[in-house]
Design brief:
The complex is a heterodimer of chains A (249) and B (311). Chain A is built from six helices and 13 strands. Chain A is an alpha/beta fold and 249 residues long. Chain A has a nine-stranded mixed β-sheet with strand order 9-8-7-10-6-1-4-5-11, sandwiched between helices. In chain B, a hairpin with a 4-residue loop joins β9 and β10. The chains are: A alpha/beta (249), B alpha/beta (311). β12 of chain A pairs antiparallel with β10 of chain B. Bound molecules: flavin-adenine dinucleotide (2 copies).
Chain lengths: 249, 311
Amino acid sequence: MKILVPVKRVVDYNVKVRVKVDGTGVETAGVKMSMNPFDEIAVEEAVRLKEKGVATEIVAVSMGITACQETIRTALAMGADRGILVETDVELQPLAVAKLLKALVDKEAPGLVIMGKQAIDDDMNATGQMLAALLGWPQGTFASKLTIDGTTASVTREVDGGLETVALALPAVVTADLRLNEPRYASLPNIMKARKKSIETIKPADLGVDPAPRLTLVSVAEPAKRKAGVRVASVAELVAKLRTEAKVI
Amino acid sequence: MTALVLLEFDAAGIKQPSRSAVAAAAKLGEVHALVAGEGVAAAAAAAAKLPGVTKVLVADAPALAHALAEPMASLLVALAPAYSHLFAAATAVGKNVLPRVAALLDVQPVSDIAGVVDADQFVRPIYAGNALATVKSADAKKVITVRAASFDPVAAEGGSAAIENVAVAVADAGSRFVGAELSKSERPELTAARVVISGGRGMQAGENFRLLEPIADKLGAAVGASRAAVDAGFVPNDYQVGQTGKIVAPELYVAVGISGAIQHLAGMKDSKVIVAINKDEEAPIFQVADYGLVADLFTALPELAAELGKG
Ligand SMILES: Cc1cc2nc3c(=O)[nH]c(=O)nc-3n(C[C@H](O)[C@H](O)[C@H](O)COP(=O)(O)OP(=O)(O)OC[C@H]3O[C@@H](n4cnc5c(N)ncnc54)[C@H](O)[C@@H]3O)c2cc1C
Ligand SMILES: Cc1cc2nc3c(=O)[nH]c(=O)nc-3n(C[C@H](O)[C@H](O)[C@H](O)COP(=O)(O)OP(=O)(O)OC[C@H]3O[C@@H](n4cnc5c(N)ncnc54)[C@H](O)[C@@H]3O)c2cc1C
């Protein structure tokens, strides 16, 4: 079985982003970029399925500017076999990403797509569900456990009240939650090997998709800052302040 | 212009995040509500009492019993032509179902909105809430999930909407519910609680979460946790507060043994009053805390339980 893993290049999770002074977006110039952490989990899961003999090939896909190649290289160093870059300067929103992925799935015919449940920049939490819809495939979102048994994927999902398990007829789309696994660090030899793996570059037009955004950004603002608080010296002072000053207990 | 809101419910009635979604939808005009599931007459009756809802659509069928995304999405797509906006709370169910609906309608969804500007423009937090984007949708129909913590829920009673049954023709889409392991708790739900007390890695072990219980009992609080505490197996996944867990905005949030990483702050920094208890006076959590107590939690928590007992 072939597995397709979409990987997104995002601002590193350690960076505290700043809103541009003119309110047109956030500052990304000179900021450290990394693979979306949920996508690392997705790649790891695919690699483990390959190590178990369930998967035969892992294709990592990224969409966006040329630099997304670095993200694909990271996936290749973790164990993906080859990469596809859908190169565009257009700002891609989940609907466009899902349409592009659908076109790639039609071409590549994977038995499973594993991706992140959300990207930590836009926090849309949408692309996997949308891809599943466009393909008419079942979806297992927010996965904390995945087992493949022949033609069925069993997915344990993190839901509001705890955990839920669904059985999906393959092919299916699975989106990774934090506790699906702990992604490995790529070893130096694997990073070297990854340089020799192939990355194919294509354009949205090659896939017959118009990636034009449907949402326009009107403005970006900084959220209201919290007022600096006070230190209390004891538990008794804390409780007194909560009772008489904050009046919340 | 009429909006349809997908409601979630349990034996106690319509869930609070869904009542917040109704409040968000009501800012635009008329609101209809959808109750879908198996054996949902009581939920439909509860929905009809929500102020601001003028009609309740009821879809009752075995295929809808577990709110699986595939049948729920086909149902919503079938109902969509009559509506300008489709809403749901940004809960596990809403986030699972609505993007699927959107793709089937060729619409770019607007996820997790924290504000309604007008029929086309919405405010949504991005980058773990470090920026607030106002976005304008060019799609004819809008598909929206609502950050419940940002909208005061409508009351549970006061309205009297008409109830209408809708036919359900749901094809098998390859998914089947197998089972659920839900955490049992007598406490209020995290996203609905007036007070939340959360423990982090500093709690050191699952059994130490017991130290939070007498305090939670006295304050009527829900218990939450940081990702580190969940990853370490101290508490189940549904306790996680943060960018990628639950978003809460209670009257009072007490963070115990939590450092205050941006991903955690993203889930609680809109709380009205924040208290931090941490032994490291440099911990970033103190930068957002209204009241900071530098102390060892293993002495502070029993003291806090005793002090609250005095009142
Ligand atoms: C208002 C707004 C403003 C924006 N501004 C900019 C901007 O200034 N610059 C800019 O570059 N983009 C911009 N974007 C696009 C944005 O960065 C995302 O690419 C897009 O919105 C997808 O959302 P998400 O990544 O949060 O999706 P999610 O649904 O959260 O992503 C889930 C998963 O989908 C997959 N995925 C998503 N995108 C890709 C991708 N490109 N390649 C491979 N896999 C992917 C990953 O597996 C990811 O884990 C903007 C989007 C919006 C809505
Ligand atoms: C993609 C991604 C998503 C994430 N999503 C989330 C999320 O949704 N929610 C979330 O919480 N995190 C999330 N994180 C993790 C986040 O970055 C932090 O790692 C996490 O919040 C740290 O948890 P903590 O504060 O409990 O642990 P630590 O950072 O280890 O802090 C423990 C604190 O306890 C204090 N302490 C220790 N012992 C005591 C004692 N005896 N008495 C008092 N204080 C004590 C220490 O001083 C320290 O400040 C995410 C990370 C990533 C990469």
